[in-house]
Amino acid sequence: MARQKIQIKKIDNITARQVTFSKRRRGLFKKAYELSTLCDAEIALIVFSATGKLFEYSSTSVKQVVEKRNLLSENLNRLDRPSLELPV
Amino acid sequence: MARQKIQIKKIDNITARQVTFSKRRRGLFKKAYELSTLCDAEIALIVFSATGKLFEYSSTSVKQVVEKRNLLSENLNRLDRPSLELPV
Fold first, then answer.
1. Which A residues, 40 through 59, put their C-beta within 8 Å of a C-beta on chain B?
2. Beta carbons of B50 and A39 less than 8 Å apart
3. Fold that domain B14-80 belongs to in CATH
4. What residues contact residue A73 under an 8 Å CB cut-off, 6+ apart?
5. Where in chain B are the domains?
6. Which residues in chain B have their CB less than 8 angstroms from residue A34's CB?
7. With CB atoms counted within 10 Å of each terminal CB, which end of chain B scores lower, N or C?
8. Tens-digit pLDDT profile for chain A (88 aa)?
9. CA nearest B71 in A: which residue?
């Protein structure tokens, strides 16, 4: 039996939304860890729940990745490059 | 036919690692977008490839999420809380 596709829009039911948040957050952190390990990537992931609770993951440290990112962004701006490569 | 499980360790073959990086990065960004939309979460995701290329996603702006996170971290440190909740 195939799983049903769900629509990607905000879940109205608060309880269902919190359950989905817990499950998918866990999945997202796992995928981030796997990507960093398999492909030697450096990752920082920051998640705030709808209630403002903070969850974070980094393959090294969030601070370090953010600083590296800011440095690169500044350089790119200085070189007048239109934008970073933004997937999705 | 079930998919084979893979071992989570660095992929030795460079080409295979790059292919896996592209595919899994795409998947990770998609999952981050879905989590933010479904559950009204605020997310920043920063990924550096092994070659130092930057990819990023945010439901709002990376800068905004990072600043919110830094503010909260500072407050937590000031209150002498041992650590944030770190899933995985």
1. 40-50, 53-57
2. yes
3. SRF-like (3.40.1810)
4. A84, B54
5. 14-80
6. 8, 24
7. N
8. 578 899 999 999 999 999 999 999 999 999 999 999 999 999 999 999 999 999 999 999 999 999 999 998 777 666 554 455 555 5
9. A54
Residues of A24-45 as b/e, b for ≥16 C-beta within 10 angstroms? bbeebbebbbbbbbbbbbbbbb
Parts of chain B with a pLDDT under 50: 81-82
pTM of structure: 0.85
Nearest chain B residue (CA) to A15 = B39
Assigned token pair, B23:
């595919």
Q: Which H, E and C letters describe chain A, residue by residue?
A: CCCCCCCCCCCCCHHHHHHHHHHHHHHHHHHHHHHHHHHCCEEEEEEECCCCCEEEEECCCHHHHHHHHHHHHHHHHHCCCCCCCCCC
ipTM of the complex: 0.85
A14 near B CB under 8 A: no
Residue to substitute from B33, B45, B49, interface A, most A β-carbons within 10 A: B45
